[in-house]
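Researcher: I'm preparing a figure for a lab meeting and need a structural model of a single chain. I don't have an experimental structure, so a prediction will have to do for now. The sequence is pasted below. Please return the structure as tokens so I can convert it later.
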Amino acid sequence: MSTMVDIATRSRRAETIQGKAVRLIASGCLWIERIDPDLGITALVRGDSGVRWVVTYEAGAWSCTCPAFVRRCSHVRAVALVTERTPS
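Model: Understood. Here is the structure written out token by token.
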């Protein structure tokens, strides 16, 4: 028999980057620190673990300090959604 915790864990594993990004925004886990046309974007995103990751957009490239970031992650997607930048 599955418990509610098991079901929640499984559903989060199947969550898409877009879905998690929307959930992070909706739950108030995103703070924009800077939006500047010359200096780029800097934001903090609190992940599911409670750790705050730093997301930046500089010189046309996204980055995130989370261990999942290779080219994109839900933290970058969340910041891109609220700043209308499209991650590549």
